[in-house]
Design brief:
about 160 residues, alpha+beta, 4-stranded antiparallel sheet, about 10% helix, about 30% strand
Length: about 160
């Protein structure tokens, strides 16, 4: 499978699509998805939802991939981006006349997640359990927060210039 990359504008487009999709689902309205796909995105037919969480020691990116087999998931780190891609296939073939409703996501997916510079992409680990992929990135020492004490100087304290 060839890997394609999303531009920042396509990420905005996908977020807008997700907002409209959520709105349509909550209101019960059907939504006609605009074909905003770019030539580089023609291969991806859906985007898995993600969560990013951070602890003192690591950054964790979780992706909901229900029904996707672990061997059909590709996890790559390219620069400061996590690339999740793969494919989910329909196991049973239904006659269109018998299927009353299908809301499952099928086909190829790809999601590019920008990562902060203070995570170690080459040392990440990936774990897939119960339809959720978790990719863990340890933080570099520089990325850990350190509280800096703010000192005050009194106006009465004479400042000396040593030249």
């Amino acid at each position: 499978m060839s890997l394609t990359f999303m531009s920042p504008l396509s990420e905005v487009r996908d977020q807008i699509n997700r907002i409209f999709s959520d709105f349509a689902e909550e209101t019960g309205m059907s939504m006609v998805r605009p074909d905003w796909t770019t030539p580089t995105m023609k291969s991806a037919s859906w985007l898995p939802p993600i969560e990013m969480n951070e602890t003192e020691k690591e950054m964790v990116v979780s992706a909901a991939l229900p029904g996707v087999k672990p061997e059909d998931i590709n996890v790559e780190v390219v620069g400061h981006s996590l690339i999740l891609s793969g494919e989910t296939r329909r196991e049973k073939h239904y006659d269109e006349k018998q299927c009353h409703r299908s809301e499952f996501q099928y086909g190829q997916f790809m999601r590019r997640v920008p990562l902060p510079e203070y995570v170690q992409g080459e040392q990440c680990t990936a774990d897939y359990r119960n339809g959720v992929l978790e990719v863990r990135f340890p933080k570099m020492e520089e990325g850990k927060r350190k509280r800096i004490e703010v000192k005050t100087t009194s106006k009465d304290t004479p400042q000396t210039n040593t030249e």
